[in-house]
Design brief:
four-stranded mixed β-sheet, Zincin-like, 239 residues
Length: 239
């Protein structure tokens, strides 16, 4: 929750979801977790004065509504017809089909899941993503390593929930299969990040300088992951 106690500037108005009058001397703007705006105002303050006050703090309100939206947990997903699932940054709808030899395929811009596998849909999807991760990430590691003269050890695809990638002391690179839900440029950032760790084991200034020399816009990709990483997941169970 974000609270702004007072101050006045003149800008455009925005919607007010709730006004609470009380025995107070100042005005407070409160942004709820669902982005709704509540105004707490003195009893004698008119609606017109309140609207003008809100208009005057348009920038502050919008900025903190955006922050509130970013902090919300992602909406629940279900293994049902029409639900959207990510692959390399694009969303594809799910279709449950009656007759299909393979448990899950991505064809004609949609995921097709065999109805007989619906009870184990999460396992089927995670298995599919792991296969794709091996193909996509192995190729990107090979390409980026050769392009920038990195030497690495083995490559592992993991089921890590809190780390996108890691590099062991022996140079083994590990990447979570969830990474292939992200756009390819994000995959490339994580791959490069771990490849730099084959030379610089920590996150010192020299590490970020080396990363920036190869990928000057890396901060944008870091921010993308911070903002969107929570969406790179699967439903926990069938509902």
């Amino acid at each position: 929750m974000f609270i702004f106690p007072f101050g006045i500037l003149h800008v455009m108005s925005i919607p007010i979801d709730n006004i609470i009058h009380s025995k107070r001397k100042t005005v407070s703007l409160i942004i709820q977790p669902d982005r709704k705006l509540t105004v707490r105002a003195p009893q004698r303050m008119s609606d017109d004065q309140i609207r003008e006050f809100v208009r005057s703090h348009d920038n502050w309100i919008r900025k903190n509504q955006t922050r509130a939206k970013a902090s919300l947990p992602p909406p629940k997903k279900y293994f049902t017809d029409g639900e959207l699932f990510l692959f390399l940054g694009k969303e594809y709808p799910l279709t449950i089909v009656s007759h299909q030899r393979l448990a899950l395929i991505l064809s004609d811009s949609k995921f097709q899941l065999a109805n007989s596998n619906l009870p184990i849909a999460r396992l089927v999807f995670s298995h599919w993503y792991k296969i794709q991760a091996r193909m996509v990430i192995y190729r990107r590691v090979d390409f980026i390593a050769k392009q920038n003269n990195f030497v690495h050890g083995k490559i592992r695809i993991s089921s890590a929930r809190t780390r996108w990638g890691s590099c062991s002391s022996s140079g083994t690179l590990s990447f979570t299969w969830r990474l292939v839900m992200a756009p390819l440029e994000i995959v490339d950032y994580v791959v490069l990040h771990e490849l730099v760790h084959t030379q610089i084991k920590n996150h010192s200034k020299s590490f970020w300088l080396k990363l920036g020399e190869i990928l000057p816009e890396y901060k944008k990709r870091v921010q993308w992951l911070k903002k969107n990483g929570k969406y790179l997941t699967l439903p926990e169970k069938i509902e």
